[in-house]
Amino acid sequence: xxxxxxxxxxxxxxxxxxxxxxxxxxxxxxxxxxxxxxxxxxxxxxxxxxxxxxxxxxxxxxxxxxxxxxxxxxxxxxxxxxxxxxxxxxxxxxxxxxxxxxxxxxxxxxxxxxxxxxxxxxxxxxxxxxxxxxxxxxxxxxxxxxxxxxxxxxxxxxxxxxxxxxxxxxxxxxxxxxxxxxxxxxxxxxxxxxxxxxxxxxxxxxxxxxxxxxxxxxxxxxxxxxxxxxxxxxxxxxxxxxxxxxxxxxxxxxxxxxxxxxxxxxxxxxxxxxxxxxxxxxxxxxxxxxxxxxxxxxxxxxxxxxxxxxxxxxxxxxxxxxx
Length: 323
Ligand SMILES: C[S@@+](CC[C@H](N)C(=O)[O-])C[C@H]1O[C@@H](n2cnc3c(N)ncnc32)[C@H](O)[C@@H]1O
Description:
Layout: E1 2-4, E2 9-11, E3 20-27, E4 30-42, H1 43-47, E5 57-59, E6 79-86, E7 90-91, H2 101-112, H3 114-117, E8 121-125, H4 131-137, E9 142-147, H5 150-162, E10 172-177, H6 193-196, H7 207-211, E11 215-219, H8 225-240, E12 244-251, E13 255-257, E14 262-264, H9 266-280, E15 286-293, E16 309-318
Bound molecules: S-adenosylmethionine.
Residues 95-96, 99-100, 102-103, 126-128, 147-148, 152, 178-181, 219-221, 227, 230 line the site of S-adenosylmethionine.
């Protein structure tokens, strides 16, 4: 994440590797200029786990005379195209409108381990414009793509629609508002967000699927100490109710701090403390464990998989547990 000191704008490194087309959209009464990136995935990757490694390539987007996206469903027999609308550079509060490297790392992991995600019900937290949810949706029965605020949820909804043809028959990706800073994230908000996000609130009919969630995803949600606290409170609540596995990707960002007068990674260190705190919350009924997953699985997307990119797994086990 590069931060421009003057404008306080942040820029994801992912965009350096992507060819994109810029288009202008109007949502309700707001005009939005977005970039569109398209990735191609060989069909073989979907069926022959890791044996036939084909990189997803970012490629040129076709726009017709009216400026609408030309969604070429299948450019050739054995290629799948994934189309993502996103912002190129944003203020910190809008980082979810960009695509982040950890999102691509988690997507690689899902593609390589697709049988583990097959037919699952999945909850994606802080999903942003939705690439990870869309990849999960290619294998899962149901994905809840969640984030906060109408602007980002509208972009996610658009991306789900652009990639609808990739989801197996009978499965779906639903866009929902889920705010970690809300005591009960599944009830409608009572703050200023409520009107904007009303169409994305969880519904009564979501309840059976929410009870079925066994896998949770979170890509690049560790960057702010207070938000990390809220995030961990949310996963404690969600994972305490039934056995679940959470995969969380992050980039260990090293910064110079005036407090230490040295380089440090405060967000990462705080994340590690939160992991230890979570394990301490284990009791007779629910035990938490965590581990770091080696990132030696094949790379399907085009990005720079540095050693700072990490993937973690948190598991909640239920029933009589040994503390
Ligand atoms: C760095 S972005 C990552 C987006 C996406 N997962 C990716 O990797 O491309 C962090 C995401 O966390 C979301 N977020 C921030 N605060 C949140 C909150 N209180 N509740 C839910 N999501 C939140 C942001 O809106 C944003 O989409």
